[in-house]
Specification:
The chain is of the alpha+beta class and 153 residues long. The chain is built from four helices and six strands. Strands 1, 2, 3, 4, 5 and 6 form a six-stranded antiparallel β-sheet that branches.
Length: 153
């Protein structure tokens, strides 16, 4: 199981995720149309030529999903009971077709669960970073993480 147990997370630790993903036009168009976000800034190349960026922007919710998804194998795969929610989310720089995103995760804090003795809550901050080393997304997230089973301790 690649995910980490509650005990393995240490506040202040930083995880550099090895997975990188180049975002394509197909990703953006498919995600935007599947979610009915028909904003011309995502879908219409001619309209977007006159925007402040001069081209289409990748849908920010796709980027949030990509950034959080890239983190799963190294952090929560098989060791989480669930995502408890996102806190502050920011998109300080735009993402364009052809940008390659990698992710860094910082462990902000952790605490024992008050209602469950088999788990604890870990606060993560995920940074989505493009190939120019610009932060394109930050997302604070809380996960309910399993404790290591007694037999495995």
């Amino acid at each position: 199981m690649p995910g980490l147990y509650f005990e393995e997370f240490e506040p202040g630790a930083v995880i550099e995720h090895a997975t990188r993903r180049t975002v394509t036009e197909a990703d953006n168009v498919l995600f935007s149309t599947l979610t009915l976000n028909l904003a011309p800034l995502h879908l219409d190349a001619e309209y977007s030529k006159d925007s402040i960026y001069g081209q289409r922007l990748v849908n920010s919710l796709f980027i949030l999903g990509l950034v959080s998804g890239i983190t799963v194998p190294d952090t929560t795969q098989g060791t989480t009971l669930g995502n408890l929610g996102f806190g502050e989310i920011k998109f300080p720089k735009p993402v364009f077709h052809g940008d390659t995103i990698h992710v860094r995760t910082e462990i902000l804090s952790k605490r024992e669960s008050k209602s469950r003795n088999d788990s604890g809550i870990v606060q993560f901050r995920h940074y989505g970073i493009n190939q120019r080393d610009e932060i394109v997304c930050t997302a604070d997230r809380a996960g309910l993480m399993l404790k290591r089973p007694a037999a495995a301790a």
